[in-house]
Every structure is written in structure tokens, then in C-alpha cells.
């Protein structure tokens, strides 16, 4: 009966290295990984658990777990998958339900996972990443040796705040996007960029001007109503998401304020509502197609063992200036 020691001897590696490869621990070089898999095949070392791991290691099937499809991101993922000969399975989940979505992967047929704007606790993602190659797309959990493709949310919001400051606004509020009882990294990063811009340009940060939103227009309405009650109102509101910005903008208008004259409003994501708003909303556009393509490329490299050290790839964004900060042209 062939033992794991036989596989290690034939591959010229340690038993620990063989174990790491068979358990899909990707902290192994591509060269050693290939030697182990070749030795396993040559010796026909395939107990049931090992068979599942081998199928997974050789699989060209990828699971994408998401809360809602971002069409351009999925098109980018699928285009690269098709070009490289991979298949894509799409699984819907609630925003914090990624763990449940991958239970069926235990059959070993799927070789890697993309989490598209999912939220996790750190230990959950660590456990998943020990079993599968994982790349996060958009929202992320910042754990050691993680893989991510996204825009730099902090830098983008820094640039947005800088734009508002250069228009002469000085009392600038911020509405976070803290949906589902969480404070996701993207919102924290956007708030960090806002605060850094205030500091760099010598403007005070007013903690009382911070409000919490989610992903809804209603949360923007609620935040704006609170600002309207203040004796010293903000002259600009940086919103971490476009729906929030739309709710704020319309509440200010309905109260008789001029946007952007009395108060400027900005959003993030460049969703359709930012364009149809009156005035249209200054926002950040994310290149979702390119983000999807680069996510799939990174996952394939990880599945092949071509990379084994964590990597965060930030894709360029576009600040789109519209009427909510500069008025109608």
C-alpha cells in the first residue's frame, strides 16, 4: 500500500509539503506543487479524501458567490474564464452568507472561489482560504495573505473630498454605508479618505456631522433631516454610496435649499440613479468589467500555484463631476 512518505520521496519534498498540497494550502511553490501532483498520479495514491483534493486541484470550475450580480463585473469574469478554458458557477447569497454557499464544494469539483462584495468575519475567510483558492472582489476582509481586486476606496474618497474643498466648502459632513449591521471595509476606507483630505487641507473634522446610512435612499433622507435640524448645517455632504446621496439631495431640495449652492452632495458607485437625479450627482465610477477580468486572472494564477503571497490589486477609478457639486452647465 502506497503511503504519503512514498509520495514525498518520489517528489523529492517533505511529507509536510505533500500534506499542504493535498489539502490545497497554496503556500507552496508552483514547482513543488507540480512534483507532488505528478508523484501522486504515478503512485496512484488516491484514498477518498485525497481523490477529492486532487479533483479540486485540477478543476477548471470556479464558483462566484455574490449578493446581486454586477453585470459588468460578471461579464469580465466570464470573458476571461472562457478565454482560459474555465467554467463559472454563480451562487446567490445574503451579504453575510458565503459560508453556507460553499458547502456543496465539499465534493471537490470546484477549484477556486470568487467572493463578489461579500462580508465575512476574519476567521471565516481564513478557514475558507485554507481549503480553496479565494479572491475577493470589491468588499473585503483584510486578513494575512489575502487576494483582492477593487478600487482604492480611500484614495477615491480623498479625491472626492479634495474636489469639494477646492469648490470652497468648509463644513463637510460624511454619511457612512453600514448596512446589515456591519461597518464594511469599503465604507471605513472611504471615511478614512475623507478624514485624511480634511486634515491635509487644514479643515476641521466635525464628529457631529457623521451619520450612518446603509444602501438605501431612505437612509439618506434620514441623515439629511438630521442635518436640517442643526443650527450650523454642513455646506457639503460626502456620501459613501449613490442611493444615500440621492436621498440627501432630494431632502435638501424639498426643504428649499439650493444644491449645490447652499449644500453640495456627492455619492459613490455611479449607479443609474446618480445620472437621472436633478441635479445629477457627482460620484466615483468603478470600472467593474476590468475589475472582473483582473479578479478571474488572479484566481487562475492562484489555482495554478503561480502566486503564493497575498496580493491586493487596485484598479483606477474615475471621479465624475456633475451638477450636485458644480451646478448645471
TrEMBL record:
Matching InterPro entries: HTH_LacI (IPR000843), LacI/GalR-like_sensor (IPR046335), Lambda_DNA-bd_dom_sf (IPR010982), Peripla_BP_I (IPR028082)
SUPFAM superfamilies found in the cross-reference section: lambda repressor-like DNA-binding domains, Periplasmic binding protein-like I
TM regions (residue ranges): none
GO molecular function term, any single one: transcription cis-regulatory region binding
Domain of life, per lineage: Bacteria
Pfam families hit by this protein: LacI (PF00356), Peripla_BP_3 (PF13377)
Keywords: DNA-binding, Transcription, Transcription regulation
Claim: DNA-binding is one of the keywords in the record: yes
Ranges for domain HTH lacI-type: 2-56
Protein name, as recorded: LacI family transcriptional regulator
Organism: Anaerobacterium chartisolvens
Amino acid at each position: 500500500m502506497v503511503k504519503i512518505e512514498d509520495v514525498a520521496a518520489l517528489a523529492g519534498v517533505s511529507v509536510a509539503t505533500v500534506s499542504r498540497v493535498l489539502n490545497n494550502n497554496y503556500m507552496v511553490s508552483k514547482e513543488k506543487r507540480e512534483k507532488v501532483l505528478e508523484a501522486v498520479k504515478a503512485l496512484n495514491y488516491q484514498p477518498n479524501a485525497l481523490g477529492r483534493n486532487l479533483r479540486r486541484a485540477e478543476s477548471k470550475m470556479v464558483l462566484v458567490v455574490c449578493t446581486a450580480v454586477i453585470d459588468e463585473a460578471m461579464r469580465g469574469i466570464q470573458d476571461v474564464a472562457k478565454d482560459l478554458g474555465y467554467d463559472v458557477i454563480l451562487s446567490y447569497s445574503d451579504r453575510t452568507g458565503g459560508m453556507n454557499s460553499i458547502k456543496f464544494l465539499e465534493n471537490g469539483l470546484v477549484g477556486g472561489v470568487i467572493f463578489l462584495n461579500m462580508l465575512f468575519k476574519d476567521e471565516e475567510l481564513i478557514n475558507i482560504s485554507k481549503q480553496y483558492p479565494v479572491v475577493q472582489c470589491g468588499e473585503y476582509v483584510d486578513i494575512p495573505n489575502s487576494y483582492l481586486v477593487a478600487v482604492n476606496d480611500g484614495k477615491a474618497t480623498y479625491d472626492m473630498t479634495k474636489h469639494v474643498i477646492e469648490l470652497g466648502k468648509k463644513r463637510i459632513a460624511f454619511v457612512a454605508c453600514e448596512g446589515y449591521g456591519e461597518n464594511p471595509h469599503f465604507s471605513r476606507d472611504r471615511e478614512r479618505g475623507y478624514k485624511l483630505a480634511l486634515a491635509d487641507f487644514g479643515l476641521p473634522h466635525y464628529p457631529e456631522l457623521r451619520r450612518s446610512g446603509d444602501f438605501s435612499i431612505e437612509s439618506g433622507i434620514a441623515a439629511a433631516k438630521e442635518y436640517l435640524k442643526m443650527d450650523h448645517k454642513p455646506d457639503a455632504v460626502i456620501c459613501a454610496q449613490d442611493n444615500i446621496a440621492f436621498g440627501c439631495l432630494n431632502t435638501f431640495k424639498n426643504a428649499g435649499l439650493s444644491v449645490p449652492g447652499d449644500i453640495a452632495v456627492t455619492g459613490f458607485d455611479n449607479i443609474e440613479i446618480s445620472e437621472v437625479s436633478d441635479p445629477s450627482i457627482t460620484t466615483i465610477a468603478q470600472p467593474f468589467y476590468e475589475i472582473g477580468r483582473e479578479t478571474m486572472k488572479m484566481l487562475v494564477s492562484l489555482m495554478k500555484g503561480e502566486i503564493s503571497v497575498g496580493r491586493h490589486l487596485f484598479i483606477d477609478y474615475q471621479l465624475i463631476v456633475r451638477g450636485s457639486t458644480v451646478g448645471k452647465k
